[in-house]
Specification:
This protein is mostly helical.
Length: about 130
């Protein structure tokens, strides 16, 4: 009977030990699984972050390009405006000059006419003198 009791006890102990070992193994496996899951999550997060960053960079680049284009357009417009202004000024100057020239010409013509008239008068006077 004592022997039987001892055997039973031993068996119980062995069973307990086995159970404990199994529990430890299961716990370890679970821990490993958890770690793997965490790693996977981290990797996914990193990937998402990378994609987001890439998208942001692309957007930034696009914005920069747009800004540059706008600046270029503005510059071109400014240049065109300046050119137009210059042309207008030149035209105005030309017009003024032309007016001045016309005036001068008119004056010259008037002078010539006057001179001719004077000459004619003189000639007439001379003729008259000669007649008398």
């Amino acid at each position: 009977m004592m022997m039987m009791m001892m055997m039973m006890m031993m068996m119980m102990m062995m069973m307990m030990m086995m159970m404990m070992m199994m529990m430890v193994v299961i716990m370890m496996m679970m821990m490993m699984m958890m770690m793997m899951m965490m790693m996977m999550m981290m990797m996914m997060m990193m990937m998402m972050m990378m994609i987001m960053m890439m998208m942001m960079m692309k957007m930034m680049m696009m914005m920069m390009m747009m800004m540059m284009m706008m600046m270029m357009m503005m510059m071109m417009m400014m240049m065109m405006m300046m050119m137009m202004m210059m042309m207008m000024m030149m035209m105005m100057m030309m017009m003024i000059m032309m007016m001045m020239m016309m005036k001068m010409m008119m004056m010259m013509m008037m002078m010539m006419m006057m001179m001719m008239m004077m000459m004619m008068m003189m000639m007439m006077m001379m003729m008259m003198m000669m007649m008398t």
